[in-house]
Amino acid sequence: MDTEARFYKRVDSDRVRCGLCPHRCSLGDGKTGICGVRTNRGGTLYTSIYGELSAVAMDPIEKKPLYHFFPGRSILSVGTVGCSFRCGFCQNYHISQDPGHPTEYKSPEDTVALARGNASLGIAYTYSEPMVWYEWVIDTCRLARKQSLKNVFVTNGFINPKPLHELLDYADAFNVDLKSFSDEFYKKHVGGRLDPVLETISEISKKEEIALEVTTLIIPGYNDSTDEMERLTDWLSGLGPDIPYHLSAYYPMYKFTAPPTPVSTLRRLEEIAQKKLRYVYLGNVSGESNTRCPSCNALLVRRSGYRVQVENYENGRCASCGEPVPIRG
Questions:
Q1: What is the pTM of this model?
Q2: Is residue 20 domain-shared with residue 157, that is, in the same domain?
């Protein structure tokens, strides 16, 4: 549904500049931004995806992935079309890179009712990039908050400070996709820049009431060097060593034909990350990905696939040694 967009300015009689994300697209009449879903029509910027859902499902919260936010719970997950990035390795390219992909309209009221009807923890804005869906997302977030539902975001983090700070008033959890610690990688393979993503992660980390986790898809030969992982984890640990960090295995997808990520590569990078970060997880690989107490190594949350069992964890602490552990729910 076409709706007037937020965060734009008229430059002259028929040109507008979008201020939602750091691309700051300057659009003449009839032109559409990089995201594919925000169009200038006669000097007014419109979003074409208000309430347009391309995907909807009840998912385990661990699938986002969020490992320290209400373990074992399920959450209504919704996505739209369009994206501010052009990742050649996108795993959901059929919706993120195709604004014409079929969608179904649902109002914020319908979506909140659907979440409540499914006894959902809340609503996860995911699958494609939720920030390009801002107008519908913020309206839905407000209603969800009034109904005591959690608002969860799985995002590339490429958003300007003003819209981000408004969204933070209604957010409960984020998983931000930090695709690399190289600006060259972002420019060449993503179509964006690294610094705005780092700024987003930093701003979220300042909000103690919001759960933050970070994920990197490890692509052999592109972002799997020892040096890059050391720099990334140095920076992330500076925000807080308790931020959960997910190292996810890549498989050939969309335009990328690099071989799948070897488990040995993930283990090497995990060892580096664990020197600075207390909670490091491997994703897209078989086997368990458990949470252990960083003090006494007691098993706190057992995960096998999406089967989750909480053990030895009570009231925010390890039940074995009393160490505070940042798990919510």
A1: 0.97
A2: no
